Amino acid sequence: MHHTEIITLLQTEPSIHEINVKGWVRSFRSNRFIALNDGSTIKNLQCVVDFEKVDEEILKKITTGAAVSVTGVLVESQGQGQSVEVQVSEIEILGEANPEDVKLTILSPKRHTLEKLREQAHLRVRTNTFGAVMRIRSKLAFAVHEYFQKNGFYYMHAPIITGSDAEGAGEMFRVSSLDPKNPPLDEKGNVNYKEDFFEKETNLTVSGQLEAETYAMGLGKVYTFGPTFRAENSNTSRHLAEFWMIEPEIAFCDLAGNMDLAEDFIKYIINYALNHCADDLEFLENRLLEEEKSKPQAERSDMVLRDKLKFIIDNNFKRVSYTEAIDILKRSKPNQKKKFKYIIEEWGADLQSEHERFLVEKHFKCPVILFDYPAKIKAFYMRLNEDGKTVRAMDVLFPGIGEIVGGSQREERYDVLKQKITEMGIDEKELWWYLELRKFGTAVHSGFGLGFERMVQFVTGMGNIRDVIPYPRTPGNAEF
Ligand code: 4AD
Ligand code: MG
């Protein structure tokens, strides 16, 4: 018999027709009530067993974690919190789970810390928290595609293996077919990459932007959405070595248009989550409310998950130039300044995440788009402003997260770009194709990158980025 998912059954009227459902036992009470979950929803389906009619051997095997197939009829539920339940006529154990072994895992029914769950990343999706987060992650990914596809963008697959460093930050994972212990050497004693698979040095992509730019200059509006790699040694709750980035790139669009797009896009996907992930968001919100309760009254936040999401949708992002932001930071009260690890003294300094979060959480109290940064602290490809010292960069800063988007209008002038590349000591030979775009029908164009995991963090309220991706890659961590 074909099985039906729990999410569907919970919306089905009771009837005399038999249904079949398959899932994992969350709990089995009084030799009678199975709480069954199949991952389709956070909700469990109650299955009521008549123990007198079931073989004792089978009863013993209905244990937490076991996979079972249940056949029966849907009846109106007597219990609270559910409309229907299954009156079981037949139960089959598909995969046993030995209770003694289960006790040693995170499947055992008690509260486990998120750290503990990370150690069993292969099992954690079976917990309520991770089921909720990963369903939301999937829905958000769909919303990303829906937004761009509805708005005339084409999905462009940027390469994973590249020969360039798009961000010029040198934070790359090398890709090589050479024996690291015994690489071929050239006459000067350097590694001879001519003998490598690609006959040159290559790395995993740090951004699909440069390739996306070439496609925007042919398809008009494109977006990438793929894995991105950074070998930065940042052990924080916001950084991964492997993360997913969404990068739209638009021809004939300036920085103002880029900001409009970022704001509209972010609001769209957050709204999508509110409309399509109600049960999971409710669960995660309750989880956060519990956490809030353990804090002293003064530190409790007045907005919990769904209110925060609605706030983003209902309010304009505040657009502030870098120069204005520096002034605000310089003018901030002495007791606030004392809290900063780095005090911003002068124009030109790079903002640390503590400053970004101050601007968003304390000063403006809403998302902020900072723009027109000093050229010196931003990547080579950004459009130089007429003042000769700032570039048309933009960062979207979010409460609780900090930077969620980085983007810019791109330098479309051949000579200016070439000079910038030389000044920044970048090998022009690696970027000949990128420069050439500026020779053949160059045009104003812009784009940005949204860190998908940071968005999933914001929507789910999870504090650590390691808990919003199935298998996090961080320094020293690639166990699974
Ligand atoms: O600001 P970034 O480095 O910008 C770029 O890569 C541009 N090429 C994007 C573009 O204009 N097309 O990265 C963009 C975003 C950040 O704002 C952040 O959300 C995310 O990517 N990000 C990371 N997320 C998780 N772990 C990391 N190590 C990240 N590094 C960047
Ligand atoms: Mg950035």
From TrEMBL:
It is an enzyme of class 6 (ligase). Signal peptide: none annotated. Its EC number is 6.1.1.22. The lineage of its organism: Bacteria, Pseudomonadati, Bacteroidota, Flavobacteriia, Flavobacteriales. The keyword Aminoacyl-tRNA synthetase applies. It catalyses: tRNA(Asn) + L-asparagine + ATP = L-asparaginyl-tRNA(Asn) + AMP + diphosphate + H(+). Gene3D superfamilies: Bira Bifunctional Protein, Domain 2 (3.30.930.10), Nucleic acid-binding proteins (2.40.50.140). Residues 274-301 form a coiled coil. NCBIfam families: asnS, PRK03932.1. It is found in: Cytoplasm. Keywords: Aminoacyl-tRNA synthetase, ATP-binding, Coiled coil, Cytoplasm, Ligase, Nucleotide-binding, Protein biosynthesis. CDD domains: AsxRS_core (cd00776), EcAsnRS_like_N (cd04318). It comes from the Bacteria. It comes from Constantimarinum furrinae. InterPro entries: Aa-tRNA-synt_II, aa-tRNA-synth_II, aa-tRNA-synth_II/BPL/LPL, Asn-tRNA-ligase, Asp/Asn-tRNA-synth_IIb, NA-bd_OB-fold, NA-bd_OB_tRNA. This is Asparagine--tRNA ligase. Its main location: cytoplasm. The keyword Glycosyltransferase does not apply.
